[in-house]
Amino acid sequence: MLRSTYLGVYPILLTIALCSSTAAGFGVDAHKIITQITENHLTETTKQAITQLTGGANLINIVLWPDRIRYTPGYQKSAQWHYINIADDQRLDDLKHGADGDILTAMEHFHGQLIGNEITKKEKIESLRFFMHFVQDIHQPLHVGLQADRGGNSVAIKWFNTVKTKNLHWVWDTGMIKTKNLSTDQYVRLLDQISPRKIQEWQSSNFLDWAAESKSLRQQVYDFSPEKQTPTTVIGQSYVDRNIALLEERLVMAGIRLAGRLNKIFDPNH
To answer: Is residue 134 part of a domain?
Structure first.
């Protein structure tokens, strides 16, 4: 069962974790892009409420925190909340969730903490950190992954002409985004041009819908043709060309949907 907070973790440890450069899940640039899009769609009431709750903390630091503390003492269990494993022939609504949780149960839990009034301010800040992060991560298709290859982490990749081997999860977290050679600000301006109708459509879906979308995209994720394959899977420009628009849509969807959820939590009369 998920806990709202891990007690006994001293403030100095959290400070060290926040300053750590270690990160996983969606890459740092992807999280920055999604978070900036989210901020663009928050109401002023929501912005003020979050500022008051967090003491004016930068939202990207809030979002990156769960990656930076996932292996620190007291938080190790949180590592498995960043994903869910499901076979191709399984249905998400039939899936039995482990006792220690996964990304779907974690989102439900921390969302419930945010809309309730039974927890402390410190616990609510922590719930916000986890909730914002997991809403973003679930839009990366390999966070609804196959246990056999650890959501693509065990799929070795030869990335263009690089010597060092990468993995498929990295391609979707970080690699494809970097091929555009855009700053995060430029990427946000490129992507955040969504019609009100589309925003309403995307925000009307639920957590299970988001996971089901990611699962449905896996066939495309694992399609490596027409590159000539070797013992190490080869990924080049043709793979990026086929998939970059899909990845970009998932980035903007995550931002729009997260903004919608935060507005409902902090500005329910909106």
So the answer is: yes
